[in-house]
Amino acid sequence: MKLLVCGGAGFIGSNFVRARVGEHGDEVTVLDKLTYAGRKENLQDVEHRFVHGAIEDPSAVADAIAGVDAVVNFAAETHVDRSISEPDAFVRTHALGTFVLLEAAREHSLRYLQVSTDEVYGSIESGSFTEESPLEPSSPYSATKTGADLLVQSYSRTFDLETVICRGSNNYGPYQYPEKLIPLMILNAIHGDPLPVYGDGQQVRNWLHVSDFCAGIGHVLAHGTSGEVYNVGGPDECVNLEVVERIIALTGADESLLTYVDDRPGHDRRYSLGSEKVKALGWEAKVRFEEGLAETVAWYQENTWWWEPIRSGDYREYYERQYGSSLG
Ligand code: NAD
Ligand code: TYD
Question: Distance from the CA of 1 to the center of ligand 2, in angstroms?
């Protein structure tokens, strides 16, 4: 296949492109704005065509989309904490960007896959969300992702565009920017820095290895029914505090680094996704959390070339802004 992968220089996008080129022999064009989270280094070992531009820019999209068979859209602002402090880019990329891509897909009659998140459903105390669960997003991140999903569905219903939506649970694995829980804790543990746990640390996330999410997206791209939504959830849940304790054990860091800090406003307590629909397409998660977390810690320990420039760059400023006062 010839694929346009938007946001392909980010964490999940780059893992997806690597798998599609390496395992499926696809020809991939990546369209990416290269925000702080998008890095060409993430794809330095993968053959692809690269177009530098924003999904909300129709001329960049027109350049990137020429000659492809399908569009997979990962492009997004993805950090809940940044959506609280600076929501503007979330609205622009998710609402306007998705609209521009949908228009281009419509003009070229292309199959369109939107990468979405379990956060559109909000928090669930027990049990799991299905694709029929109501949409009750809590943060500007999840609210704008929800808006994008609804726009995608409107293009299916109104214009008969072939669309599918994949809602993933929390991903982890190689190349994840260290603002997110797991890589942040791994790098802080390696450096002997405090490990900032929000609130009581009893929030629950449904962890999905990035290779499993990429495989699920591939299944839905190939076999998903147009107009449908597919949840892709991880095989294991874990309380945040336990995630941090496991990272302490895997890195040999000192327990005393664990530091409770102020909770995130509007913090969702628990996410859990039922994935029966995508399992019926033949997908199943392969990586259990215990094994995947150990591999991920080892990847960060071995790939200092990848994160050293991040930790010494703009990330420092973000980190000070986000944690400075609470970590003293
Ligand atoms: P990421 O932040 O690592 O990467 C996002 C990529 O999109 C970056 O390369 C960035 O440069 C690019 N981008 C941002 N705005 C853009 C724009 N306007 N135009 C073009 N490119 C732009 O994010 P990620 O964790 O890889 O997430 C990818 C997708 O998966 C997102 O849509 C996210 O909502 C979804 N998702 C993520 C998770 C998770 O746990 N990380 C879980 C479920 C779903
Ligand atoms: P995060 O990786 O930001 O993903 P999301 O908010 O999209 O689920 O956070 C995962 C969980 O970890 C969430 O409950 C917030 C918590 N968390 C901390 O306790 N400390 C931190 O420094 C970060 C970044 C997250």
Answer: 36
Cβ of 78 less than 6 Å from ligand 1: yes
Residues 28 and 166 in one domain: yes
Note whether 221 and 299 are same-domain residues: no
Q: Which residue has the least CA distance to atom 5 on ligand 2?
A: 80
Judgement on whether residues 183 and 220 belong to the same structural domain of the protein: no
Active centre residues (catalytic): 118-119, 141
Contact 23, 5 (CB under 8 A): no
- Residue 319 lies inside a defined structural domain of this protein: no
Q: The whole model's pTM is what? A: 0.98
Residue 185 and residue 56 in one domain:
no
CB atoms near residue 123 (< 10 Å): 17
| Cα 113 from Cα 224, distance rounded (Å) | 10
- Domain coverage including residue 220: 2-171+209-232
C-alpha angle 28-31-36 in degrees, rounded to nearest 5: 125
For residue 328, the model assigns a pLDDT of: 56
Q: What is the pLDDT of residues 82-108, one digit of tens each?
A: 999 999 999 999 999 999 999 999 999
Kindly give the number of the ligand 2 atom that is closest to the alpha carbon of 198: 19
Tokens of 122: 């909000």
**Mutational test site, ligand 2, from 240, 246, 257, max ligand atoms within 8 Å of CB:** 240
Cβ(203) – ligand 2 distance below 6 Å: yes
Q: Is 42 in the pocket of ligand 1 (CB under 6 A)?
A: no
> Is 80 found in the same domain as 192?
no
Pocket perturbation via mutation, ligand 2, pick of 198, 259, 263, 273 by most ligand atoms within 8 A of CB: 198
